[in-house]
Design a protein that fits this description.
The structure is a homodimer. By secondary structure, the first copy, chain A, is α/β, with parallel strands linked by helices. In chain A, 34% of the residues lie in helices and 17% in strands. The longest helix of chain A is centred in the middle third of the chain and has 24 residues.
Chain lengths: 400, 400
């Protein structure tokens, strides 16, 4: 990797330290090595971003701390230029003969993986037409499942990661500001989203300059839009886009983000076209109160489940349970959703450095959906709101 | 689903027929039912499109042909409105207690799945922080692997699917036409890509009208761009975008597509800014000849491997093997890559109705990459080129 200002991207020292912690885990667990197939795990340990396809890729580390990337011929130069590993092994092509996994077996043997070894999955996942043998079949023994360790390591963000998340928040903020500015009665969701996203992306690229890297399989620039959550459709949380025309009285649920060296923030806002009705006001206020209940509940040492409990108690106290559809939020970082979850079923203790979305929602048939999502970082004594977009109804009411 | 013109989207009759074939397979194999987790398999059998997250979703069919969709609370209304199934079962949330897979087990028992059953994966894949038990653990016995049957079924496209692929080709063509028009020395790859993609998307939405549905997890509209394959970088086939400024003499490798009711075509072109050098002309001509070799080799009844063999022979005959990086192409449809593959290792017999990309490439260090990709449909006596974008050097040379 070329030298770049310390304020952007993760340093080589930090990538090295990530590997050191993984190596310590291998030693503690007396494992001969580890194989990781998940593209985000590979990005986390090597700095190498790619879009997963039917061609298997893997990161391998042995108990001596030697790191390898296993790629198809197609990705060799790309991997050599970008991955912080000491060797790049490759196979010719998928499907081909011999099967890529047979070639991987040679790499594993050569690096000394045998007997007790770990992996995130028992072989490359069968996506996009890929088929192949499991590691159990190839190695003769199943891998130790290492996902819990990797997830635990990725949960707590470093200062460098927090800096990138703050940078992502800024460009999501710009995209959303433009989205709100261009949204008006008669316009379509798609034209407004495309215009806001394009302008924010070009501004981000000009502001950060040529060193900018998205390193994201999800998107190449800032994005803001509605994903079809407009008017009555806003009551369906993950509706896919429909190119709806904005009308007076619509309740809108927006979303904005920007990938910055692989890191994603999340900003979502409920907006209303025209003066809010009494019922809309009431639901908007409850939604704000639900979010503030969660903000107050997030504290180091508290289980994630308690945050969801506090919020669920608010729903019950105010007879809002019929409008509940999902938990309070999720961790975020290299992935737009990641563990732990602010959910009744997640006992993970909250720690400083964790970053969560806080997004309890109310979904009212025939009225619409009400959800803000703010990205927050856990501090030693509570949270810091990374998102700084206005949350109040006056700021989010659009003229008709 | 609402009634729509027969020329767009897959009919309910066709979805029904897909289920009938799957049911026949269950009967032939004496299976009590099937569980599918892959989002594209679910779209194929139910018409329901969604973006996979840490919340498990599954399609279930039993030996009586009863179809269910298993979703989180969040997706219930969305699934009821869009999925062609007779029941939508749901769990509260992930992670939650009980675990969603325990709830799925209840659905499977209720539908009569037991003993011999099939699945595409042994449990929901561990993505985005999800963790959970395998079907083997839940059911007491491992599932029969049904991926080969599903892939075989999806390989051969119906008339309705071909119509949607042709529609996708048209809007990819428009996006690429605009991309080529706006690409000029001094502009950046991102501004040109954003402008061409936005204009093509808005034109497509206005042309097809409000009934248009992308039904794609990959994109919401027409897209054209370079993904960083510009100048010397064009020698790296899957480079990620870098916002490069176009310069005289650059070799460009573009890509364009548009999702149309879930179906994707692929159009890629090699373009050169300014008059091509002799070396560029030579490589461009070889690339065209490689592609034509593949066009001639694709015939019903021929194994996929023979197409790759014919093309590999051309590389060898002309001392081009150092510039080879990947096989000839892949099938395409609901997924941008799918099986079978035009690859030495794929013995699948080519059949009428299969749709392939044809995209042999030459990657020359210090010069650039040379690759066209055309989408072709197999006919009873050869191929039909679905892509109709110009392929010749004169049409693809940009003024400086």
């Amino acid at each position: 990797m070329t030298q770049q200002p310390a304020s952007f991207q993760i340093t080589e020292a930090e990538f090295h330290q990530r590997g050191v912690r993984l190596l310590e885990h291998l030693h503690e667990s007396k494992l001969s090595g580890v194989v990781l197939f998940d593209s985000h795990y590979i990005l986390y340990y090597t700095g190498f971003a790619f879009i997963p396809t039917e061609r298997p890729m893997a990161f391998v580390m042995n108990a001596r701390g030697e790191k390898a990337l296993f790629v198809p011929r197609l990705e060799v130069e790309h991997a050599n230029a970008n991955a912080l590993v000491s060797r790049v092994d490759h196979y010719i092509e998928y499907p081909f003969q011999p099967h890529p996994m047979q070639v991987l077996l040679t790499t594993l043997a050569d690096m000394g993986l045998h007997g007790d070894y770990a992996a995130d999955q028992d072989g490359y996942p069968w996506i996009l037409g890929y088929r192949g043998p499991s590691l159990s079949e190839l190695m003769g023994t199943p891998p130790h499942q290492i996902t819990a360790f990797v997830e635990d390591q990725m949960m707590v963000k470093s200062r460098g990661e927090l800096a990138l998340l703050r940078e992502s928040v800024k460009w999501g903020h710009l995209a959303h500001t433009l989205l709100q500015r261009y949204t008006r009665v008669g316009a379509t969701e798609t034209e407004v989203s495309l215009r806001a996203s394009a302008e924010a992306t070009l501004a981000m690229l000009d502001a950060i300059g040529p060193l900018y890297r998205a390193l994201s399989p999800f998107s190449n620039g800032a994005e803001a839009g509605y994903r079809g959550q407009i008017g009555r459709n806003a009551a369906i949380p993950h509706a896919l886009a429909n190119n709806i025309v904005f009308s007076p009285g619509d309740v809108l649920v927006s979303g904005a983000t920007a990938p910055v060296w692989g890191y994603h923030s999340e900003l979502e806002r409920t907006m209303i076209i025209g003066p809010a009705s009494d019922q809309q006001k009431r639901m908007f206020d409850h939604m704000l109160a639900l979010q503030e209940t969660a903000f107050d509940a997030i504290q180091p040492g508290v289980p994630c489940s308690e945050v969801d409990q506090a919020v669920r108690a608010y729903y019950q106290r105010h007879d809002l349970s019929p409008y509940w559809k999902h938990h309070v939020g999720h961790a975020i970082g290299l992935r737009y959703h990641e563990s732990p979850f602010l959910d009744l079923g997640d006992a993970t203790l909250i720690q400083p450095g964790m970053v969560f979305t806080v997004e309890p929602g109310l979904y009212v048939p025939e009225l619409g959906g009400f959800r803000h999502s703010d990205t927050v970082a856990v501090t030693p004594d509570g949270i810091e709101l990374l998102t700084y977009y206005p949350r109040d109804l006056a700021s989010l009411t659009l003229s008709t």
